[in-house]
Design a protein that fits this description.
By secondary structure, the chain is α/β, with parallel strands linked by helices. The chain folds into three domains: 59-286, P-loop containing nucleotide triphosphate hydrolases (Rossmann fold, 3-Layer(aba) Sandwich); 296-481, Nucleotidyltransferase, domain 5; 501-550, no CATH class. The protein is built from 22 helices and 17 strands.
């Protein structure tokens, strides 16, 4: 039952009336919202707002408010910040969201609400400046001060502003707030995949140790994911949850959202994910961005024969391309030890011609131990002799790689891939405009590779993530790069031809190389003779002498 405040008008003593107004503002949030801050649309036919305000008046230590969009939850939360200031003018309130820029808007709104409310400033002149833009010692978009006890009289050292904004990424280290309002922590930008959700949940857990132990936290939001903070904290905190409709189909905010408006909204939204999460406060599977990266894509396939890409209009030798290998490292577990939460190693091999067109020569994902992973690096290099192998940095792999360089007596060109705070899903979506300029070797089944996007985005698209990383490294070749590439391919062809010879001829050839190299005065002279040998022009082609054992 909503309180009847009509008795205030019957108070004739103006000083007494003023004290009553001051006391009600400090202790009755519903009164403060409706009669001091001017929220005339507070619902009176149901208890949606009165009950929320009454529960907040008890100052719970942890309180989660889940109300549908447009139901004044943020507005009431802002007035709760004002009430905190009324009861403690030395309060240090943090208003936060997932990122600071979102919270900045809330602080700006609160600052404007205080500056424009003449009744509030008249009732509490000892707390609020008459002209804060001029008189306050701090009055910025993202932080401001009210009238506070002088620092030397407060008996404390470091002091945060009366109100300031913060984000959870990065965390506001050193900001030991006395009160906290969290708004829209879970939102459209951070609930698209498990990687984003896990990061947000981790940051939430790291945030609470930064607070003073007695600091109350009020969190406002709606539902996006069954693994997001708003779902998790329902079971841990005192929670106020009101959907746009009651369980028996009646509107909970009828003065603004009657049944006719609700039905029209549901038709206009036409997205079950949005409707259930934002208005009925139930999580559901996302379908819009979830399917976006591959929806309607037609993939181009080409054959690669004798180290040549056979496109419909021309043939391109791999020696005239630059090959880049990108790798998304795994969790260090082999196939037999892997668990569901362990990443696979994702590998993409890409040949880029001088027009900048890609040809994906290989694309796969597999479980590897750390030792197997290092063996994989060398086998990939020996097979494709790439310009570089780029790997997302995993510090625990560095000792294995250094040891392999020492024991094998050679190194391979490695470079570092940097996620730069981009979630995996965003990297993959960045491929969207590039699909038409990518060819895939016709032995690859790309549809099979991307199918796991729909079933296991966190651990099932490591190969596609490796492909997406090509955006960071793949560039058309320069003349110098191609010259170096051709040398590597010629050396590769030489080894391939020799390996194909019968054993006796291969032994003859290797013996001939050893003997001939001894008589040349320079490497260039030897290379010229070797080239003539392969062309069948060498006079010594059959002139091989054997020792008694040969």
């Amino acid at each position: 039952m909503i309180n009847n405040y009509s008795f205030i008008e019957s108070i004739e003593d103006q000083e007494l009336k003023r004290e009553v107004l001051r006391e009600l503002a400090k202790t009755d949030l519903y009164f403060l919202c409706k009669f001091i801050m001017g929220y005339r649309d507070m619902e009176v036919r149901t208890d949606i707002h009165y009950r929320l305000c009454s529960e907040l008046d008890a100052n719970p230590l942890r309180y989660l408010v889940l109300i549908f969009r447009g139901a004044f939850k943020t507005s009431i939360g802002m007035v709760k910040c004002i009430q905190w200031l009324l009861n403690d003018q030395n309060a240090q309130i943090g208003i936060g969201s997932d990122v600071k820029v979102r919270a900045d808007k809330r602080v700006w709104d609160l600052r404007d609400m205080i500056a424009r409310n003449e009744l509030l400033k008249e009732l509490f002149p000892e707390i609020f400046y008459e002209n804060p833009e001029i008189n306050a010692d701090l009055w910025r978009i993202d932080e401001f001060n009210i009238k506070r006890t002088e620092r030397q009289d407060r008996g404390e050292g470091f002091s945060a502003p009366s109100v300031s904004s913060f984000g959870l990424d990065p965390l506001p280290a050193g900001s030991h707030f006395t009160h906290v309002l969290l708004d829209d922590i879970e939102n459209d930008g951070n609930q698209n995949n498990d990687e984003q959700i896990d990061k947000l949940n981790r940051n939430m857990g790291l945030f609470f140790p930064l607070l003073r132990p007695t600091a109350p936290v009020v969190m406002l939001g709606t539902i996006y994911s069954d693994r997001g903070p708003n779902t998790i904290y329902q079971s841990r905190w005192q929670t106020y949850k009101r959907a746009v409709l009651t369980t028996d189909g009646r509107p909970t905010f009828p003065s603004v959202y009657p049944l006719s408006v609700i039905e029209r909204m549901k038709t206009d939204i036409s997205d079950n994910y949005v409707w259930l999460g934002q208005y009925m406060l139930k999580p559901s599977m996302r379908t819009d961005k979830f399917f976006y990266p591959f929806s309607g894509q037609q993939f181009s396939y080409v054959p690669v024969i004798d180290n040549c890409i056979l496109r419909s209009t021309h043939k391109t030798s791999l020696a005239d391309c630059i090959t880049y290998i990108t790798i998304d490292p795994g969790g260090g577990a082999g196939l037999g030890d892997a668990k569901a939460n362990i990443d696979k190693v994702g590998v993409c091999v890409n040949a880029v011609d001088n027009s900048g067109r890609w040809c994906i020569l290989d694309l796969f994902q597999q479980y590897y131990t750390d030792e197997q992973f290092v063996d994989l690096l060398f086998s990939l290099y020996d097979k494709w002799h790439p310009y570089s192998i780029a790997i997302e940095k995993m510090p625990h792999l560095d000792p294995y790689i250094r040891l392999a360089f020492q024991t094998r007596g050679r190194s391979i060109p490695l470079s570092e891939l940097k996620p730069n705070r981009r979630p995996k899903s965003d990297r993959i979506r960045a491929l969207g405009p590039l699909w038409k300029s990518i060819d895939f070797v016709n032995t690859l089944n790309v549809a099979q590779h991307i199918s796991t996007w729909y079933t296991d985005q966190e651990h099932g698209v490591d190969d596609i993530d490796a492909l997406a990383y090509q955006i960071d490294v793949a560039r058309p070749p320069t003349k110098e790069m191609l010259a170096d590439q051709r040398v590597r391919w010629e050396q590769h062809d030489e080894k391939r031809l020799v390996a194909a010879l019968p054993q006796l001829e291969r032994e003859e050839h290797e013996y001939w190389l050893k003997q001939k190299k001894k008589s040349f005065t320079s490497d260039q002279e030897f290379d010229n003779e070797l080239e003539a040998f392969y062309a069948g022009e060498s006079e010594d082609y059959y002139d091989v002498e054997y020792d008694e054992e040969g």
